[in-house]
From TrEMBL:
Its cofactor is Mg(2+). Its main location: cytoplasm. Allosterically activated by AMP. Residues 145-451 form the Phosphofructokinase domain. This is ATP-dependent 6-phosphofructokinase. Its EC number is 2.7.1.11. The keyword Ligase does not apply. It comes from Arachis hypogaea (Peanut). Belongs to the phosphofructokinase type A (PFKA) family. PPi-dependent PFK group II subfamily. Atypical ATP-dependent clade 'X' sub-subfamily. Pathway: Carbohydrate degradation; glycolysis; D-glyceraldehyde 3-phosphate and glycerone phosphate from D-glucose: step 3/4. Catalyzes the phosphorylation of D-fructose 6-phosphate to fructose 1,6-bisphosphate by ATP, the first committing step of glycolysis. GO terms for biological process: fructose 6-phosphate metabolic process. The keyword ATP-binding applies.
Length: 542
């Protein structure tokens, strides 16, 4: 990292004016860095960089280094507030931490987004490594933190709340932590509750969120007014894609008002559809819990002649839970997800495959993600086109629909008598407490979030990238959605495990529809041939 400079001397940097210049930015063989930012006039960036107060200009903070190194950095108080005092990190006097060699993260540490490289590959995009810094921008007594949970439930929410409270308290001596009840609208429509290590001690053993949650109700101005009125200066916002977009809006307003308030996102989504990060907390728990439903479906199916078990799992736009639960189980004969169009009738269709499997095995199990086959249903049933309070499309029950279609088909064709059992465990899966590995993951996410806020970073989501905790700028989290890539190896592994048809027959959509996304994270095990091109494409499309 030695060659990458985030300089605090203006003369050593070159400022570029917009994202699209990325494609032409000179990057290689330079000792000084090329810094592209428009956060504020004269902003140079980086921890402790000198800064001047000015109207914020909401552009990404990108730093170039040698050999195609790109750091997509996160905002810092010093980008828009001048002359802030700093303090030694209290962790240096904490016996648990002070003995750890190199406990503080080096200012230049960053984590690559892509770890599979070729010998001539450019170094590509990096994110700032999370962790404690030597200097902090808050005194312990000064901090008044708030925590809010928004969107749908997910295993691990309570663990994150607990670890935020305990992390703030035990690591940084922060005594004032408020819980915002009932999601975003709780900022302006509800009272707050005091959270202490004692009051949150056992909550990780419970499902749901002790703070409550909601959809809709995001009013940026009212929320920031409430933050200001209550004297809150660190806000921890736990939620999915919608929530993180809301967090970005709050951050922008906070910065517009010039407030020293750290706005920190912690990504939550049982669907695992948040981009950039390896996976979201609660996902492992969901996959594990889904096994119980799949087992039950299998037991039912194999106990009768021509038994079919259908299990619906969550996944509104992304079929990760269905895919991983299928791969984990090995009892599943067919997995249907939103990303992989399928059809029912005719050669290569689902009915033909079901008949074949029943003849071979006498029973079968189908796992279907809730967002799969919505177009097929819409053809036959009138689409409701309704939305929830956050604007998410309300889906029809694909599990019920497909079960009925299968029953009708065999009743009509009279080829064989079947017995079908449909299991919908979706809300049972979502409501359980997180498992051991998710609990560890939640702890790391929460502690990383706290370290970043104390160090003056803001406007970021705390997330795992290639197994390392990082700070990711909101715009990267909010620009798209993570999908299963059906042209990627992981889906191929699933197809070879279930032996199901790929449904890529005549009736399938053309290839352009299918190959629109490339995987970006390790979970997908993608093999990107030219990451830099992709980064350029993504950044220029913002
Ligand atoms: N574009 C947006 N700008 C501001 N706020 C938003 C935006 N989208 C959603 N929100 C707010 O974020 C909160 C949560 O959104 P949503 O209900 O979509 O859940 P989510 O965070 O996406 O979680 P999940 O989908 O995993 O359940 C809601 O209060 C909603 O009003
Ligand atoms: O019934 P609710 O609370 O709107 O949640 C349902 C949705 O929430 C999710 O679990 C995402 O949090 C989706 O998989 C699902 O479609
Ligand atoms: Mg969402």
């Amino acid at each position: 990292m030695g060659s990458v400079t985030v300089s605090n001397k203006k003369s050593q940097t070159t400022s570029l004016n917009n994202y699209n210049n990325l494609a032409t930015a000179p990057v290689a063989n330079k000792t000084e860095s090329v810094t592209m930012n428009n956060y504020c006039n004269g902003w140079i960036g980086g921890e402790g960089a000198s800064a001047m107060t000015s109207a914020p200009n909401l552009k990404p903070k990108i730093v170039y280094g040698t050999a195609g190194y790109i750091l997509e950095d996160v905002p810092h108080f010093t980008d828009y507030i001048s002359d802030l005092p700093t303090y030694p990190n209290p962790l240096q006097d904490n016996p648990a931490y002070s003995v750890v060699k190199q406990y503080f993260v080096h200012v230049d540490d960053s984590v690559p987004q892509k770890v599979v490289v070729h010998k001539d590959s450019e170094r590509g995009v990096h994110f700032r490594r999370a962790g404690p810094r030597q200097k902090v921008y808050f005194e312990s007594d000064e901090v008044k933190a708030a925590i809010v949970t928004c969107g749908g439930l997910c295993p691990g929410l309570n663990t994150v709340i607990r670890e935020l409270v305990c992390g703030l308290h035990h690591m940084y001596g922060v005594k004032r932590v408020l819980g915002i009840e009932g999601g975003y609208r709780g900022f302006y429509a509800r009272n707050t509750i005091n959270l202490t290590p004692k009051s949150v001690n056992d909550i990780h053993k419970r499902g749901g969120t002790v703070l409550g949650t909601s959809r809709g109700g995001h009013d940026t101005n009212k929320i920031v007014d409430s933050i200001q009125d209550r004297g809150i200066n660190q806000v921890y916002i736990i939620g999915g894609d919608g929530t993180q977009r809301g967090a970005a809006a709050i951050f922008e307003e906070v910065r517009r008002r010039g407030l020293k308030v750290a706005v920190v996102g912690i990504p939550k989504t049982i669907d695992n559809d948040i981009p950039v990060i390896d996976k979201s907390f609660g996902f492992d728990t969901a996959v594990e819990e889904a096994q119980r439903a799949i087992n039950a479906a299998h037991v039912e199916a194999e106990s009768v002649e021509n038994g079919i078990g259908v299990v619906k799992l969550m996944g509104r736009y992304s079929g990760f839970i269905a895919m991983y639960a299928t791969l984990a189980s090995r009892d599943v004969d067919c997995c249907l997800i939103p990303e992989s169009p399928f059809y029912l009738e005719g050669p290569g269709g689902l009915f033909e495959y079901i008949e074949k499997r029943l003849k071979e095995n006498g029973h079968m199990v189908i796992v279907i993600a809730e967002g799969a086959g919505q177009e097929l249903m819409s053809e036959k049933m009138q689409t409701m086109n309704k939305q929830d309070a956050s604007g998410n499309k309300l889906l029809q029950d694909v599990g019920l629909w497909i079960s009925q279609e299968i029953k009708d088909h065999f009743a009509r064709e009279k080829t064989m008598a079947i017995t079908l059992k449909y299991i919908d465990p979706t809300y049972m899966i979502r409501a359980i407490p997180s498992n051991a590995s998710d609990n560890v993951y939640c702890t790391l996410l929460a502690q990383s979030a706290v370290h970043g806020a104390m160090a003056g970073y803001t406007g970021y989501t705390s997330g795992l990238v290639n197994g390392r905790q990082t700070y990711i700028p909101f715009y990267r989290i909010n620009e798209n959605r993570n999908h299963v890539v059906i042209t990627d190896r992981m889906w191929a592994r699933l197809l070879s495990s279930t032996n199901q048809p790929s449904f890529l027959g005549d009736k399938c959509h053309n290839e352009d529809d299918i190959e629109e996304e490339e995987p970006l994270n390790q979970l997908l095990d993608g093999d990107l041939s030219d990451d830099t091109l992709k980064v350029k494409k993504e950044i220029s499309s913002i």
